[in-house]
């Protein structure tokens, strides 16, 4: 695998990432550690993938997802301290992080191991820095966008059980969605805590 797993976040400025506008600059070291992939199955076919989304009570979430919810409650404003605590808990690698600025679309900034393992490293490299609604899995991206907007605008965690269906073979996973409206300038952020059922 080549290339970083994180993307620059223009416009977020100091206080969130570095003064150069890069969000979570320490993730580059994590990216290097995660290189050297194992043999993985081919990624799913975008044109044959459908999704079903089922809202679940938060109490059904896995323990590690509940830990991130508690962390989110301690950090109603997104700051570097949130990222530092998430890393210290050893849970960052299970997540996907998206952000936007100036009212633009949410863009992939970090893609963790479970999502990369399912969709593939080539997909992850292609998607970093791009709006998530431009995903080749178009039906999935449109369905999931509604969930992302709800988590950001509502300011409360959302826990879903999702069923991805490709060629009749379902893949089940859960995600805990945690959102922030960073300021009135249209900057938003979302963390998806992902667990694929094996």
What does this structure look like?
- The protein has 198 residues and is α+β, with helices and mostly antiparallel strands.
- It contains 6 helices and 6 strands; from the N terminus they run αβααββαααβββ.
- The protein has a 6-stranded antiparallel sheet, with helices on both faces.
- α4 crosses α5 (121-127).
Keywords:
about 200 residues, alpha+beta, Beta-Lactamase, six-stranded antiparallel β-sheet, 6 helices, 6 strands, about 30% helix, about 25% strand, globular, disordered N terminus
Calculate the terminal CA-CA distance, rounded to whole Å: 23 Å
CATH architecture: 2-Layer Sandwich
Arrangement of strands in the largest sheet: 1-4-5-6-2-3
Shape: globular
Structural class: alpha+beta
Q: How many discrete structural domains?
A: 1
Radius of gyration: 16 Å
CATH class bucket: Alpha Beta
Instruction: Let me know the largest β-sheet.
Output: 6 strands, antiparallel
Helix-strand pattern: HEHHEEHHHEEE
Level of helix content? 25-40%
Record the SSE blueprint.
Blueprint: H1 27-34, E1 49-56, H2 63-74, H3 80-88, E2 95-100, E3 107-111, H4 113-119, H5 121-127, H6 138-154, E4 158-166, E5 169-181, E6 188-196
Antiparallel strand pairs: 1-4, 2-3, 2-6, 4-5, 5-6
Helix pairs in contact: 4-5
Condensed summary:
This protein has 198 residues and is an alpha+beta fold.
């Amino acid at each position: 695998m080549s290339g970083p797993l994180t993307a620059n976040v223009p416009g977020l400025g100091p206080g969130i990432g570095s003064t150069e506008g890069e969000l979570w600059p320490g993730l580059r070291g994590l990216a290097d550690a995660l290189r050297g992939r194992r043999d993985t199955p081919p990624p799913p076919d975008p044109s044959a993938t459908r999704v079903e989304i089922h809202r679940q009570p938060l109490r059904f979430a896995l323990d590690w997802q509940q830990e991130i919810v508690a962390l989110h409650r301690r950090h109603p404003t997104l700051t570097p301290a949130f990222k530092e605590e998430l890393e210290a808990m050893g849970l960052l690698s299970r997540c996907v992080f998206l952000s936007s600025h100036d009212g633009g679309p949410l863009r992939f900034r970090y893609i963790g191991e479970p999502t990369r393992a399912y969709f593939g490293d080539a997909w992850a490299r292609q998607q970093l820095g791009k709006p998530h609604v431009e995903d080749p899995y178009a039906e999935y991206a449109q369905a999931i966008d509604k969930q992302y907007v709800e988590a950001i605008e509502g300011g409360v965690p959302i826990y879903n059980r999702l069923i991805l269906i490709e060629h009749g073979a379902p893949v089940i996973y859960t995600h805990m969605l945690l959102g922030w409206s960073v300021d009135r300038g249209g900057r938003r952020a979302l963390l998806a805590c992902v667990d694929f059922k094996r």
